[in-house]
Every structure is written in structure tokens, then in C-alpha cells.
Write a structure and sequence with these properties.
The chain is of the alpha+beta class. The chain is 36% helix and 21% strand. The chain is built from 16 helices and 19 strands. It has helices at residues 5-12, 21-26, 48-61, 114-122, 140-146, 153-156, 191-195, 229-241, 254-264, 284-300, 311-322, 324-328, 347-360, 387-406, 422-428, 431-444, and strands at 17-18, 41-43, 64-68, 85-89, 96-100, 105-108, 126-127, 163-169, 175-179, 204-211, 213-214, 218-226, 248-253, 274-282, 304-307, 334-337, 340-341, 364-370, 375-382. The strands form four sheets. Strands 12, 13, 14, 15, 16, 17, 18 and 19 form an eight-stranded antiparallel sheet that branches. A five-stranded antiparallel sheet has the order 5-6-10-8-9. β8 (163-169) and β9 form a beta hairpin. α8 (229-241) packs antiparallel against α13 and α13 runs antiparallel to α14 (387-406).
Length: 467
């Protein structure tokens, strides 16, 4: 239904309702290519009471609300599904409210930048492990909504493993508080886990309680170069097979490493077919033992190993992975960063699948990713102005997702479903899972107000609104 801008202005004030052409264009997209839809407006609620008032108005008037962090998502989760939507903005909700060093927790607002938070707690000798690739610009609220991962996910897990409490509002405007205690708590359903990764469809977050851990005492970084990509993937299997869980175990193929070298000039071996970035952390004695073992395993699989001699040297080696997307994006007008995950045992085969698909459809594809947990990011470099090439891209994506599922994997390991992968989710997910997802969503959001069109296609409305 059309958005009543006059009522929004009456609730929030004129300066908190952004509805100019420029504003609407600014919030028409996220980091996902090919997705674009202008909202009716974007709003900047000043406090929790205004958030609640906007949600209640949306239920009354029947328009959609799209919660948005920094817009760095790669699934279209913060792109409006239609023009009659309002984007909820939280850039000014960026306080680190409290750090409880005794209980290793922190209360934060959802607009707080991820790197700023990690840096702030590091100054206190604490550690917040989730490190998504966009952590310099993304927000904690967006991380929780997408259950963001990162390079350290193999050893330390993802965002959801550090969420202890969520405060905010349900899609109907009712207050929401789950968890929020500095204790282990298994009373009732684990509603935190339901909300984490819900992509803005089940609630709007206003405060988050996050778990912290002590900083590791030591760290060692290694880079291994391989003449064959499959040997790097086999090294990953062998490292885990020896019961070593590195802090970081990242894969970079030849296309990507040469782009990074062109861009950053860090001294990468251009003749290598692939790279493996490895890092271990923890007690100094354990770090030395694991670093030695990983170097041995890598060399046994044909890798030429370089061990960082200093922290500056370690940062140089990490550039090979952290700059991957930025470097690849320079090659062609359109960069489609994909996200598939398979069991580690299937990683070598999936790497070969990606290479075969790129060849079969005549596409330039650079591949990198979190090899330690089987999460690859095949990145298609193309030109959206070329209809014939984009048709081949669509065909290749179909085959890519089907290959991942056939190998016991999934269509997304960390980017989420959003708009971009909704068709694949609905086609490749078991019918029982789809039906349960629909039931949960309908129960929590009977009016289809929060982030409509994401994850599942919205149902056809056949009855009056429930307020």
C-alpha cells in the first residue's frame, strides 16, 4: 500500500524522513549487483519509542519496512522488494554501551561498526572473533541479521556464536527481549538463534549483548603456493585430518592472486595456480607446534611455504586474501560474488567443479574463500550490459548451486538468501523446511511487514490486516 509520508513526518519530524529522489536512490541497493529498487522513503528513528511507532504505523497502513545496516550485504537483503517500502536506518545508533570485563560481554547498539567494536575491546585485552570481509564498514546489527562469518570462522565460529541477547521489537511492534543475561541460559526455546540470521524478517534490533573472549597470546601466519588448485584443497583436508583447527585457512586461486598482485604489489608468486593462507593462534608452544605441522603438510602436498617473520609481514601475507574482492572488481564492469559451501571432504571436487563451469560457459571466474569450512566464493567477472553474457552467467549459477547441493552442500554459507537467492532456496530446499519457514514467519509477522519478499516470496494477501 502507498506509504503515508505525512504520518511518518508527524511521528518522527521532517528531518528524520528522507524522501527526496537522491535519498530514495541512495537506499535502492546494497552490495549485491543487478538488484535495484527505490523505497518510498528512508527514516532515522531517534529512539526505541520511534522505532516502535514506525512499526505500528506500518502494520496499520500495510507498507513494508526494510531494516538496514551499512548496506554491505551480498544477497539483496536490504534492497526493498517494491516501491511501497520504508527503509529503517540506524547509523546514529553506534554506541558501545558497556563492556563487562569480569563476565566477558558487551552491550552495543546495532549501528556500531564491527571493526571499531573489535578494536575497542582489543584495547582492553579482549577479543571479538567474527571478522567479515566488510568489517571496516559493516555494522554489528547487520552482522547479527545475516549471521556474518569471516576468515576466523573455522576456529571461532560466526556471529551467532557470540550473541547472548537481543532487544528490539517484533514485526507487530511488540517489545522483544531474548537472552540478555551474562550466564549460560537454556530456559525455553533458543529464540536468539531464531533471530540471528533472520535477515530483518523477524525483528528489529535496538540493543545487542555480545560475548567476548581473551586475546590469543601468540599468532603465526603462513602462505603456501601450489602448482595445482586441487593440491591446496587437499592440504585443507589433510590439516583437519591431523586434528589441527587453524584460526584461518583461506584459499585463493590464480585469477585472484594475480589481480591482488596487480592491485597491491605484495610480492605474491604469479606462477602459482593457487594459494593457501594459514594462521594459528593461542598458547605460544601450541602455535609453534601447529605452524610447523601445517608447513610440513603443505610441503607434502606440493606447496612452497612462506612463514611470516613479523606482524607486518603477516599483514602482507593476509593481503592476498583480504584484498581479493576489491582486486577482482577492477577487471570487469560487473562483479558477482557468490557463496557456496560443501563438506570439507568435497572441497577438492568443488574447486574443480567451479573451474569446469567457468570453462563450459566461457566466463572469467576468480575463486577464493574460507577453505577450512568448505565455504568458497566463486566470483564471476562480467558486464551486465551484455545480454548474451548475462544469460550465460544465469545458466552457470544454476549449475553451480546444483553442484554444491549435489555434493552435500548448500547455496549459501554466509551471505544469506535475501532476494538474490530466493529462487534457488525455494527450488533446492526440502519442501518440509520451506513450509516450516513459512509458518514461523506468518506466526511472527502476520501482516508481512518486516522485509517482505526476502528469503521466501510473500504470500498473496487474502484477508484484512491483523493489528
Amino acid at each position: 500500500m502507498p506509504v503515508p509520508l505525512d504520518r511518518l513526518r508527524a511521528l518522527l519530524g521532517d528531518d528524520r524522513v528522507l524522501a527526496s529522489e537522491a535519498d530514495r536512490e541512495l537506499y535502492a541497493y546494497d552490495a549485491t549487483p543487478l538488484l535495484h529498487q527505490r523505497p518510498a522513503a528512508a527514516v532515522l528513528p531517534a529512539d526505541a519509542e520511534q522505532v516502535q511507532a514506525v512499526i505500528e504505523l506500518a502494520n496499520e497502513e500495510g507498507f513494508g519496512l526494510v531494516p538496514r545496516g551499512a548496506g554491505t550485504g551480498l544477497s539483496g537483503a536490504s534492497v526493498p522488494a517494491d516501491k511501497d517500502a520504508v527503509v529503517l536506518l540506524f547509523p546514529h545508533w553506534n554506541r558501545l554501551i558497556e563492556v563487562d570485563e569480569e563476565n566477558l560481554t558487551a552491550w552495543v547498539e546495532p549501528g556500531l561498526n564491527t571493526l571499531a567494536f573489535a578494536t575497542a575491546v582489543e584495547a582492553r585485552g579482549l577479543f571479538y572473533p567474527p571478522d567479515p570481509g566488510s568489517m571496516k564498514v559493516c555494522t554489528l546489527g547487520g552482522n547479527v541479521a545475516q549471521n556474518a562469518g569471516g576468515l576466523r570462522g573455522l576456529k571461532y565460529g560466526v556471529t551467532g556464536d557470540y550473541v547472548m541477547g537481543i532487544e528490539g521489537f517484533l514485526p507487530t511492534g511488540e517489545p522483544l527481549r531474548v537472552g540478555g543475561k551474562n550466564v549460560k541460559d537454556v530456559a525455553g526455546y533458543d529464540l536468539k538463534r531464531l533471530l540471528v540470521g533472520s535477515e530483518g524478517t523477524l525483528g528489529v534490533f535496538t540493543r545487542l549483548l555480545l560475548r567476548l573472549i581473551p586475546q590469543p597470546r601468540a599468532r603465526r601466519t603462513l602462505l603456501a603456493a601450489y602448482p595445482r588448485a586441487v593440491d591446496a584443497a587437499a592440504t585443507v583436508k589433510a590439516i583437519i585430518g591431523e586434528k589441527i583447527i587453524p584460526a584461518t585457512l583461506e584459499f585463493v586461486d590464480r585469477v585472484t592472486l594475480n589481480c591482488v598482485e596487480d592491485y597491491a604489489h605484495v610480492g605474491l608468486p604469479r606462477d602459482a595456480e593457487s594459494l593457501l593462507l594459514m594462521e594459528t593462534d593461542g598458547h605460544p608452544a601450541v602455535v609453534e607446534e601447529e605452524a610447523t605441522a601445517m608447513a610440513r603438510i603443505a610441503q607434502a602436498h606440493g606447496g612452497q611455504v612462506e612463514v611470516a617473520a613479523s606482524e607486518a609481514d603477516a599483514e602482507r601475507l593476509k593481503t592476498a586474501r583480504r584484498m581479493a574482492f576489491t582486486a577482482l572488481a577492477r577487471l570487469r564492469p560487473t562483479t558477482i560474488l557468490e557463496d557456496v559451501t560443501v563438506p570439507r571432504s568435497e572441497l577438492p571436487a568443488m574447486v574443480e567443479d567451479v573451474r569446469r563451469i567457468a570453462t563450459d560457459y566461457g566466463l572469467l571466474v576468480g575463486t577464493f574463500g574460507h577453505a577450512g569450512d568448505g565455504n568458497l566464493h566463486p566470483t564471476i567477472l562480467c558486464d551486465e550490459r551484455d545480454p548474451e553474457e548475462m544469460h550465460r552467467v544465469e545458466q552457470a549459477l544454476d549449475v553451480l548451486f546444483e553442484a554444491a547441493v549435489a555434493r552435500g552442500g548448500t547455496i549459501t554459507g554466509e551471505h544469506g538468501v535475501g532476494l538474490a537467492k530466493r529462487p534457488f532456496f525455494e527450488r533446492l530446499t526440502a519442501s518440509g523446511t520451506l513450509e516450516l519457514t513459512r509458518r514461523v514467519r506468518a506466526a511472527v509477522d502476520p501482516n508481512g511487514v518486516l522485509n517482505p519478499g526476502k528469503i521466501l516470496a510473500p504470500p498473496v494477501r487474502t484477508e484484512s490486516l491483523v493489528v
